[in-house]
Write a structure and sequence with these properties.
By secondary structure, this protein is α/β, with parallel strands linked by helices. Helices cover 31% and strands 22% of the residues. The protein has an 8-stranded mixed beta sheet with strand order 1-2-3-4-5-6-7-8, covered by helices on one side. Helix 7 links the parallel strand 7 and strand 8. It holds the Pfam family Radical_SAM.
């Protein structure tokens, strides 16, 4: 492999990150966005202090053949690395299913990577016009939703998910996200309440889930074939 994948962390076993399969998660180093509620800020820089050499990851996977069923490439933002697709293909040759967690930061790179995946967990940050409030990057919303179009056109199995910090996203905006996703033809949607123990922006105030959210969950469950609320 010409450019070894930079891996900043590894979860050896999970039942949550690839639907229905026992998987491990590889946290790829580097991200171009600065989401204020990011709970993995150590992964943002292109090079990390705790990187795991790719040969060591392969050694781990060789010992897990027949035990693990899938490998999930997460982040950071995995699709920013040129070594991602070769790594995904290498993992597939070892007999694993391939999962990808992404926000589609660069649509052209995402469109290439999604072809190498069996399943994608796709992060919708906000409505396209509101995304910069979360990511801190101009044009991020347009890129996010453009990559969604690539995902839907690919035919790859997927789930869309939105992480909610109630200081950055309110009930009405979340409902509008759901409506827009539904209009795109999305059938699987999950809402993830933010993990507040560690965030990139330490000054983000914590807010309780508003009372009217209960009605929103009911409406979203009616809107999508599969809807899930993940409240940590």
């Amino acid at each position: 492999m010409s450019r070894a994948l930079r891996v900043g962390g590894l979860v050896p076993l999970t039942t949550l990150d690839y639907p229905g399969l026992l998987a491990c998660v590889l946290f790829c180093q580097g991200c171009a966005w600065r989401c204020r509620y990011c709970h993995n800020p150590d992964l943002i820089t292109a090079r990390g202090e705790q990187e795991i050499p790719w040969w060591q990851v392969l050694d781990f996977l060789e010992r897990r053949q027949g035990l693990l069923q899938a490998v999930v490439f997460s982040g950071g933002e995995a699709t920013l690395q040129g070594g991602l697709v070769p790594a995904m293909e290498q993992v597939r040759r070892m007999g694993f299913r391939v999962g990808l967690h992404s926000a589609g930061i660069k649509p052209w790179a995402f469109s290439w990577a999604v072809k190498a995946a069996d399943w994608v967990g796709f992060d919708i940050k906000a409505l396209a016009e509101d995304a910069e409030l979360i990511t801190g990057v101009s044009g991020s919303g347009k890129a996010n939703w453009r990559s969604l179009e690539h995902l839907l056109a690919s035919g790859v199995d997927y789930e869309c998910r939105t992480t909610v910090h109630w200081h950055l996203l309110d009930v009405e905006r979340l409902w509008r996200i759901g409506q827009r996703l539904h209009a795109f033809g999305v059938e699987r949607f999950a809402v993830q309440i933010v993990r507040s123990t560690r965030m990139l922006d330490p000054d983000l105030p914590m807010t309780a889930t508003p009372k009217e959210a209960g009605e929103l969950w009911r409406r979203l469950a009616q809107l999508f074939t599969h809807f899930e609320l993940r409240d940590h």
